[in-house]
Amino acid sequence: MIRISIFVLLSVFCVVAQAATDIISQQALLCNQMSARPHVIVDVRSATEFEAGHLKGAINIPFDLISQHQSLLDTLKPETLVVYCRSGRRAAIFEQALAEQAFRLLHLRGDFRDWQAAQLPVITSNPVKTEQ
Question: Residues in domain Rhodanese (predicted)?
């Protein structure tokens, strides 16, 4: 009985561990954005938050509007997506939904809050938005 319980616990742990998204640091993302094939940056905050400030080149797909943006997401499937929100909660929800569709995902370490705290570049005008 104990062996079965341990097996079940290990199985659950392995499933949860596989669902976790890899992390990309702020510096690694900055370097990547200067490469020949940069990752696609996805801001999953609300449109209002996005317009107030976002990472350069980011597209806005609010985490609660995934289904409305599925056709755009389908075109991005060959790409690696770097996902962020303000603090990580909404990005985790978004990442879980896309991981189920076999997207290649990276999560920005510290999200937007740490990006701002590090005084890294933030765009506040001419936002790149998806159709709503």
Answer: 35-124
